């Protein structure tokens, strides 16, 4: 262990600095606790400036503590990406095993996923960022090996102050040659209930496609605001429920209600749900790779943006020329609102069966959406 740690010597931080940063590991500084570690927030003087940190203190009595500690340091020091948590250093004095990373102020995705402030556009951006991080881990050309994460959940996805996704939780990750990315490997950690690749339970092996299954579960968590394991439905998994409803064409029944009025492009939802569904294929060979997933999620985001970008300028145009006190405008906007709700319901009911929307109808609907949101803005509802 000591010989192995010498190559990370430049990352070593004195224990006394970590103790000071976390107020002697005070319970008020705890931000997370799992089976093998406790994570504390704090402030550390680093590179001449004070930075907010997260100090993950591994349980020295835990049998797997040393291995997981080394595993996470190895991954975070070798792989750098804007959507991965950044390692600051570690401390291993006096039998302590502590990893210090940047502090992501918003917390985990699980904590924030049901917030009404987390819009559909923001959710799409989180998904794109996470997909890009996984694509980098699986296929980075700059390394002779890739990484299978093995623990992708809404709890290991953190959000920074700008709402950007930061993937963490690399203690169970497995290195894999980039030339043999389809090769299976043993996995002692089977994953979080509801997120685990069913093939692991059957074979005991993992591939990068196991990460893709877990990612698909997270995509449906983000869309539906439901836990991966639904305890009030006989412990049925969200993956099973979402697949069943998708195949029936009634996925909209479990979409998070506040999102229904924000998903302005049915095609965006169509692409997103298709990607999520394909990630959950029981046959690993038929699951998409991360390159394809990134491209599709970026397309889903691009389809959503034009509708949102046109609302504000159009709103100010209307206010400038008409003012906000014309009652006839309110009546007209309410009419357009009813049309918008009707069309959205029809579009969502058929979204799984149709891959293309009529361009003229799409244009007409866009006008209705614009007028509806202008009305909300004008009267301070939105």
Q: Could you write a compact summary of the structure shown?
A:
The chain has 382 residues and is α+β, with helices and mostly antiparallel strands.
Detailed description of the structure:
Helix 10 packs antiparallel against helix 11. The protein has three domains: 2-102, Phosphorylase Kinase, domain 1 (2-Layer Sandwich), CATH 3.30.200; 107-301, Transferase(Phosphotransferase) domain 1 (Transferase(Phosphotransferase), domain 1), CATH 1.10.510; 307-378. It has helices at 2-5, 15-21, 65-78, 109-112, 120-139, 198-203, 208-224, 238-248, 257-260, 266-279, 290-322, 327-349, 359-378; strands at residues 30-33, 37-46, 49-58, 87-91, 98-102, 107-108, 145-148, 157-159, 165-167, 174-177, 185-186, 205-206, 229-230, 236-237. It starts with a helix and ends with a helix. The protein is 46% helix and 15% strand. It is built from 13 helices and 14 strands. The relative contact order is 0.08. With 382 residues, the protein is α+β, with helices and mostly antiparallel strands. The model is unreliable at 352-357 and 377-382 (pLDDT under 50).
CATH fold description of the largest domain? Transferase(Phosphotransferase), domain 1
Backbone CA Rg: 23 Å
| Low-pLDDT residue intervals, each spanning 5 or more residues | 352-357, 377-382
Structural class: alpha+beta
CATH class category label of the largest domain: Mainly Alpha
Strands, count: 14
Q: Give the overall average pLDDT.
A: 81
User: If strands are numbered along the chain, what order do they take across the biggest sheet?
Assistant: 1-2-3-5-4
Count of the domains: 3
Order of helices and strands: HHEEEHEEEHHEEEEEHEHEEHHHHHH
Beta-strand residue percentage? 15-25%
Summarize the biggest pleated sheet.
5 strands, antiparallel
State the helix count: 13
Distance N to C terminus:
57 Å
Helix content: 40-55%
Global geometry: globular
CATH homology-level superfamily of the largest domain: Transferase(Phosphotransferase) domain 1
CATH architecture call of the largest domain: Orthogonal Bundle
């Amino acid at each position: 262990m000591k010989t192995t740690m010498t190559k990370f010597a430049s990352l070593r931080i004195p224990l006394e600095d970590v103790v000071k940063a976390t107020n002697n590991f005070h319970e008020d500084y705890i931000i997370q606790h799992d089976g093998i570690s406790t994570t504390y927030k704090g402030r550390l003087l680093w590179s001449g400036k004070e930075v907010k940190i997260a100090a993950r203190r591994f349980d020295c009595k835990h049998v797997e503590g040393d291995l997981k500690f080394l595993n996470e340091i190895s991954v975070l020091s070798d792989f750098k990406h804007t959507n991965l948590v950044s390692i600051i250093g570690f401390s291993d004095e006096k039998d302590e095993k502590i990893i210090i990373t940047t502090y992501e102020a918003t917390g985990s995705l699980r904590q924030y996923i049901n917030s009404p402030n987390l819009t559909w556009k923001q959710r799409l951006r989180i998904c794109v960022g996470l997909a890009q991080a996984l694509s980098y881990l699986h296929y980075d050309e700059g390394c002779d090996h890739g990484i299978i994460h093995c623990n992708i959940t809404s709890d290991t996805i953190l959000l920074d102050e700008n709402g950007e996704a930061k993937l963490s939780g690399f203690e169970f990750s497995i290195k894999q040659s980039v030339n043999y990315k389809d090769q299976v490997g043993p996995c002692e950690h089977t994953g979080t209930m509801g997120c685990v690749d069913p093939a692991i339970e059957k074979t005991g092996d993992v591939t990068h496609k196991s990460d893709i299954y877990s990612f698909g579960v997270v995509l449906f968590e983000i869309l539906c605001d439901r836990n991966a394991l639904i305890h009030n439905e006989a412990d049925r998994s969200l993956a099973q429920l979402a697949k069943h409803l998708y195949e029936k064409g009634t996925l909209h029944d479990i979409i998070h209600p506040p999102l229904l009025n924000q998903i302005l492009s049915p095609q965006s939802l169509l692409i997103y749900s298709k990607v999520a569904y394909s990630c959950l294929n029981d046959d690993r060979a038929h699951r998409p790779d991360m390159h394809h997933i990134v491209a599709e999620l970026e397309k889903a985001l691009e389809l959503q943006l034009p509708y949102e970008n046109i609302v504000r300028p159009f709103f100010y145009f209307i206010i400038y020329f008409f003012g906000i006190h014309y009652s006839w405008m309110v009546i007209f906007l309410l009419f357009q609102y009813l049309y918008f709700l009707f069309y959205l319901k029809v579009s969502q009911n058929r979204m799984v069966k149709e891959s293309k929307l009529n361009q003229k109808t799409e244009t007409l609907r866009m006008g209705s959406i614009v007028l509806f949101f202008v009305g909300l803005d004008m009267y301070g509802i939105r």
